[in-house]
Write a structure and sequence with these properties.
This protein is an alpha/beta fold. The protein has four domains: 7-132, Response regulator (Rossmann fold); 158-320, 3-Layer(aba) Sandwich (Rossmann fold), CATH 3.40.50; 325-416, Orthogonal Bundle (Helicase, Ruva Protein, domain 3); 421-464. 40% of the residues lie in helices and 13% in strands. It has helices at 15-27, 38-44, 64-70, 89-97, 110-132, 158-170, 187-196, 218-223, 240-243, 259-271, 297-302, 308-314, 331-346, 355-362, 369-384, 418-435, 446-450, 454-464, and strands at residues 7-11, 31-35, 52-56, 80-84, 100-105, 177-180, 205-209, 224-225, 237-238, 248-252, 273-275, 282-284, 288-293, 317-320, 393-394, 397-398. The strands form five sheets. It has a five-stranded parallel sheet with strand order 2-1-3-4-5, sandwiched between helices. A five-stranded parallel sheet has the order 7-10-13-6-14. Helix 1 links the parallel strand 1 (7-11) and strand 2. Helix 13 packs across helix 15 and helix 15 packs parallel to helix 16 (418-435). It is flat, with a radius of gyration of 27 Å.
């Protein structure tokens, strides 16, 4: 990619479209260059490599889906934003398979194009940085943004930068924030970032998982109870509002609160006060509310499953977290971070993350988002034996990171529990011991194949309870 001034090339056979898009991009500080056809672009463009290509997929005489191969400059693959006036789902899927960052159907909003172009430029920069960085240099700290204030959140995409800007804007206030995003997008990290930048940062951040609270314990969990208030109340107990006093209360999966109980939460948010169960004393609710949900609460309100007044009370400042499939440029950074983390937690040597592996990860839609990516990385690290990570076969069947797009309607993938991870790690160690005839030390010994110190492996074998099978002589 090019220096500090990204070049965006536009290919469209309509002069008015070329001119209007060029003017729009240049008004945003980007350098734009327009061409009437792909042939003109390929033959008349300068040697300067574009940071992004905006291409009309319906241009006559060429296959926009094949153009990606023609636009390679050495190892550089130019990110493409496809646009069309005749878009449909099959065409958009084909465009994405061909490497498109985004697929826009005319007419589209100016902001949609700017967002897509910025994402393409960000992805190109990440890929360039990955190529220029050896595997030995990919430590977790390299996967984090330069700004220390957001060091817990991995990613450099335009979508994530927008969230950072919004956090900086809302965090210093006491405004209620609701974080909207699919399961596994890292909503809790965003809530923590809001808290850490607020004036309440020195007070507690208390998380409530709204899906795990039984209806009969809802009031006690939120507001606390006094001794003897009900059977089993053997002592006074502070509720979450009291524990979070002066700090932030994070209501995770707030959309899961049963309708019958939503009025109790609404009352506290409106009146800023509550009483423990079995107690008449009124306590002040001095907390800042940050909520999160993977549901579309507007639809839930329309369906009668969520109170409209509670929704509007929570929806003061929404933060929308893009799913991983919409910020694929963050995947190399996240993958490098999780590889290091998994190797450290599992006590094994760090396997290598190859460009082919990164490409496989970026070509998958990640219905489980970052949580699913982390699980896939952990499984791959366990299976890698210290070598290169592979994302084509894991466990007992095909892994979701095969280089193909996923069906958006596919079932939620099965995740590994901690128990299953330990079981597979044990089976992996046993398989290596069998392969080496239980020889631990020396060249091609089990310790060398696993990439661990022999004494570490011996300790692990003892902890796992692995024993060499008795020798059975042949008859």
């Amino acid at each position: 990619m090019n220096g500090n001034e990204p070049l965006v090339c536009i290919i469209d056979d309509e002069l008015s479209v070329r001119e209007s898009l060029s003017d729009l991009l240049e008004s945003m500080g980007l350098k734009a260059r327009a061409f009437a056809s792909a042939d003109e672009f390929l033959t008349k463009s300068s040697s300067e490599v574009p940071s992004c290509l905006v291409l009309d997929i319906q241009l006559p005489g060429i296959s926009g889906l094949d153009l990606q191969q023609q636009l390679r400059n050495g190892d550089t693959q130019i990110p493409i934003v496809f646009m069309t006036g005749y878009g449909d789902i099959p065409t958009s899927v084909r465009a994405m398979k061909a490497g498109a960052i985004e697929f826009l159907t005319k007419p589209f909003r100016d902001q949609d194009l700017l967002t897509a172009v910025n994402q393409a430029i960000e992805r190109g920069r990440v890929i360039d940085r990955l190529k220029d960085t050896s595997e030995d240099q990919l430590h977790p700290e390299d996967a984090l943004r330069n700004e220390p204030s957001f060091s817990e959140i991995v990613g450099e995409s335009a979508a994530l930068h927008q969230v950072f800007r919004e956090i900086e804007l809302v965090a210093p206030s006491d405004a209620t924030v609701i974080i909207l995003g699919e399961t596994g997008t890292g909503k809790e990290l965003i809530a923590r970032a809001v808290h850490q930048r607020s004036r309440r940062r020195d007070r507690p951040l208390v998380r409530v998982n709204c899906t795990s609270i039984p209806k009969e314990l809802f009031e006690s969990e939120f507001f606390g109870h006094s001794k003897g208030a009900f059977t089993g109340a053997i002592r006074d107990r502070a509720g979450r509002f009291e524990v979070a006093a002066g700090g932030t209360l994070f209501l995770d999966e707030v959309g899961e609160i049963p309708l019958a109980l939503q009025s109790k939460l609404l009352r506290v948010l409106q009146e800023k006060s509550y009483e423990r169960v079995g107690e008449e004393r009124t306590r002040r609710a001095d907390v800042r509310i940050v909520a999160a949900t993977n549901r579309d609460l507007e639809k839930e309100v329309a369906a009668g499953r969520f109170r409209g007044d509670l929704y509007y009370r929570l929806n003061v400042f929404p933060l929308k977290i893009a799913p991983l499939r919409e910020r694929r440029g963050d995947i190399p950074l996240l993958a490098a971070f999780f590889v290091n983390l998994a190797a450290k937690e599992l006590g094994c040597s760090k396997p290598s993350l190859t460009p082919a592996g990164i490409e496989a990860l970026q070509n998958y839609d990640w219905p489980g988002n970052i949580r699913e990516l982390r699980n896939v990385i952990e499984r791959a690290v366990i299976s890698a034996l210290g070598g290169a990570l592979e994302f084509d076969l894991l466990g007992n069947g095909p892994d979701p990171t095969l280089c193909k797009r996923a069906d958006f309607n596919q079932a939620e993938p099965e995740y590994l529990t901690e128990q299953e991870i330990r079981r597979r790690e044990r089976a992996n160690v046993f398989a290596v011991l069998q392969k080496t005839s239980w020889r631990i030390k020396g060249p091609n010994g089990a310790a060398e194949l696993l990439g661990v110190n022999p004494s570490t492996l011996i300790s692990r074998i003892e902890k796992m309870g692995l024993k060499r099978p008795d020798f059975v002589p042949s008859s």
